Amino acid sequence: MLNLMVEYLEAAPTRLDLVFHALGDATRRRMLQALAGGERTVGQLAEPFAMSLAGASKHVRTLEQAGLLRREVRGRMHLCRLDAGPLADVHQWLSTYESFWTQRLDVLERLLREADASGPPPAPAPAATPPPVPPEQPSAPSRSPASSNPRPPRKKGPRR
Known about the structure:
mainly alpha, Arc Repressor Mutant, subunit A, 7 helices, 3 strands, flat
């Protein structure tokens, strides 16, 4: 099912959109990890995933469109290299939320210190014993859905 509101709201995705889209797939993230160790061919990137070269090429193209990968063609071999520049944009975007989490963690730390300073929490009250369960009363026989229908079954005759 295609959600037009989500897919087509913004006609031209920004570079940050493309990077987040590329990073949104675990296969592509693992390909980037492999590229952090040095250049690889598309075949080498595909190998750990047991996927076709065509499938790997689609992932490589997505990474390339996001600017996370540079591809160099040497004859029939496509060598891929990591370009980590766009990750700096992601880091900068995420850092705007750092103060949000830092403030909350500071509050949590203060509350925990206050709780430690006030001593151990009071012991929980002993659990009350539940009242005894009365013995089951025999119930009236239940009626099945078929027996609750007052209409007699319809006779099958010739179709009109």
